[in-house]
Each structure stands twice: as structure tokens, then as C-alpha cells.
């Protein structure tokens, strides 16, 4: 297939995704119809269905996009000579989530919240949410394995358990960002650092920090 | 008003709430109509409206009930002679959330997730979510203030920041419980303990733990 055609296909695909994201972010996933997406994209039903046969496929592509961005951030941490410690990793992740939430015309973290809500009712969407969660927790588990190996966390720590807690911190940040709206990445990361330092305060004599 | 009447009112009120909770947990808040609640409760529209003039008021009562349970758990920690340390506090809270999620005919944490989703679209529901969040974070801030006072966390820690992070941990636990379904309170608390111990491993020579 000639290269120009590939580019055209990719551009058209992105045009449809942009339209869908604008609709999802504005009115939620449930309230968005494929007709809304056609209108937003300025394309015919046939032109859209050729790329995305259903709303679920639009969500799948959207989720894959968000997942790709997040795994990249974690992979960059895994690729560093010196793996960032837990506090720095939490800060890096919540900073990136904030950047995602504010730097684009649509907010992918708000879309994530809509998709989570939809997954309570829709088994296909739930499957997508599971895939995203397991992929991210796998990456976070690798991060925790590095921490065990480097001695950054205790040798009897369970990397999958740490990954679940880190993923919970991510969900809790996105949740508060949209449900309450008054949380910043810095507050959140500083709060985490205070907790991480808590046992230091309890176990180590003062004056050595 | 005679006492028997008060009891009757309370029982009737609870009967309606039970019916609403069953509907919310089964089909979500959005998909539940007041007609569904009448049918589930076996009561007339007039009998229900006398207690709850709208779905929003049912949500408000439900949220107040969940909030009451959670603040009680935190208050019990605040009332102890020795305030539990951060790791124990996280364990106590996620254990209680798990108990809430499994010990009743309806699951209030699943209802919470539906209410969060609804709050994205509904300003009144958002107001309820904000009240719950601020009340819980106030209590968690008091807990963090105790930790600063006792030296359990560093003196330069910000109790409101710690509260935001702890609340994020709670949301992240409830989210994973329902979105993914494979997380236990023990895993989550152990993961948190591993993170709390992380700086100990990094800053303190091995062999002293």
C-alpha cells in the first residue's frame, strides 16, 4: 500500500478519535451517540464506521492511547541507570497525569473516569478497563521489583502488592482531580512523601535527616 | 410526637433506603427511577415522596450513611490513647471498606462509585460528593495532625496534603475493588507498608530492622 494512503488513513482515524474525545469529555461516554461523533467529525456514518465499527472500539482506541502514554512514562523510569525511588516515581506519575489533564483540548483523565463508570454496566468496556489496569500494574510491578533489587524497599516486600497500592494512588489522584477538583500533583506527591517518611520519623532518631 | 411514631417513621425511612440501595447497587444510580424504588419498596409514590422528594435526596441520605460509618472509624482512631501510625490507619480504613463492601445485602462502596460517576453530570450530586470528601479529608487531616504532634510523621509535613493522599488511597482501593475486582485489603495495606518502609531501607543501614 502506498505511503500516502497510510498517512491518510492515520489522519482520518485521528480526526475521528479527536471528535469522539471531544464528545466524551463534554457529555460523557454513555450520553454520546455515534451520530454525535459523525456530526463532531463532520463525516458520514460510513466514513466513521469504516474505522470504528462501534463506540466500544472508540473507547478501546482511546484507552490504548492513554495507556500508551502512561506506560511510556513508567518505561522511561525503568530505562534510567538509577531507578527513581518510590516518592520520585509517584511524583513523576502524578505530574504526568496533571500534564495529560491540562495540556490538550480534551482531558483524557476525565474520559478515563467516564469509562470507569461505564465499565460498571458494560462487560466489553470492563474488559478494556481490566486490560489497562493489568498492563499498568505489570509495569508498576517491574518498578517495585527494581526497588526490591536495589534495596529501596524491604526485601520481603511484594512487588505486585506495591503495584496495586501505586495504581490505587493514581486512581485516587484522578478521582479527586475530577470529583473534588482541588488537588494538585505537588500536594499529592508531598502527602505521599510525608507518609513514606513516617516510619523514618518513628524508627530513626531525630537529627540525622 | 409519641415515641412509637418516631420509630415508625425511622423504620419506614429505612425501608425506602434499603429499596433504593438495592436498585442503585443492581442497576446504578442513573438507570434507577423513582418508580423502581416504589416497586422495590412495595410502597406508593406518595408514601415514598413523603420521606424522599427526589432521587437526589435518596443519594444524600445514602452518602450521609456511608460518611457516618467512615467518620466513626476515623473518630475511633482519633479517640485512642495512642493514635495508630499511618500504616495501621490505612489498614484499618481499607479493612473497614472491605467489611462495608461484603457484609450487607447491598454494597455501599459500589453505590459510591455510581454516585461519583453521576457527579460528573449532576451539580447537586457533585455537591454531595464534595461534602463527603471534605468531611472525610478534615477527619484525615486531624489524624495527620496527631502524627505530626507525636513525631510519627516529619514536623514539616502538611496534614491537609497527607489527608488528600490518604483519601486518594481510599478512592483507589474502592475503584480497584469494583473496576478490577482482584484487590484485597491486606494486599493494599501491605503494599502501602512496603512504600512507607521504602525510605527506611534507603536511609538506614541494613541489619537494624
From TrEMBL, chains A, B:
GO terms for biological process: negative regulation of DNA-templated transcription. Residues 10-70 form the HTH tetR-type domain. GO terms for molecular function: DNA-binding transcription factor activity; transcription cis-regulatory region binding. The keyword Chaperone does not apply. The keyword Repressor applies. InterPro entries: BetI_C, DNA-bd_HTH_TetR-type_CS, Homeodomain-like_sf, HTH-type_TetR-like_transc_reg, HTH_TetR, Tet_transcr_reg_TetR-rel_C_sf. Keywords: DNA-binding, Repressor, Transcription, Transcription regulation. It comes from the Bacteria. Residues 33-52 bind DNA. This is TetR family transcriptional regulator.
Amino acid at each position: 500500500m502506498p505511503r500516502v494512503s497510510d498517512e491518510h488513513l492515520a489522519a482520518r482515524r485521528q480526526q475521528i478519535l479527536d471528535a469522539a474525545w471531544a464528545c466524551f469529555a463534554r457529555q460523557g461516554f454513555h450520553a454520546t451517540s455515534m451520530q454525535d461523533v459523525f456530526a463532531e467529525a463532520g463525516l458520514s456514518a460510513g466514513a466513521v464506521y469504516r474505522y470504528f465499527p462501534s463506540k466500544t472500539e472508540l473507547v478501546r482506541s482511546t484507552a490504548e492511547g492513554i495507556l500508551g502514554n502512561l506506560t511510556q512514562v513508567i518505561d522511561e523510569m525503568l530505562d534510567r541507570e538509577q531507578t527513581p525511588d518510590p516518592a520520585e516515581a509517584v511524583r513523576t506519575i502524578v505530574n504526568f497525569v496533571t500534564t495529560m489533564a491540562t495540556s490538550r483540548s480534551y482531558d483524557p483523565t476525565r474520559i478515563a473516569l467516564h469509562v470507569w463508570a461505564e465499565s460498571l454496566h458494560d462487560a466489553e468496556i470492563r474488559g478494556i478497563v481490566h486490560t489497562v489496569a493489568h498492563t499498568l500494574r505489570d509495569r508498576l510491578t517491574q518498578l517495585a521489583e527494581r526497588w526490591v533489587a536495589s534495596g529501596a524497599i524491604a526485601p520481603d516486600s511484594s512487588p505486585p502488592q506495591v503495584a496495586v497500592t501505586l495504581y490505587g494512588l493514581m486512581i485516587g489522584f484522578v478521582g479527586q482531580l475530577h470529583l473534588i477538583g482541588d488537588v494538585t500533583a505537588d500536594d499529592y506527591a508531598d502527602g505521599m512523601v510525608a507518609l513514606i517518611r513516617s516510619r523514618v520519623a518513628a524508627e530513626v532518631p531525630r537529627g540525622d535527616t
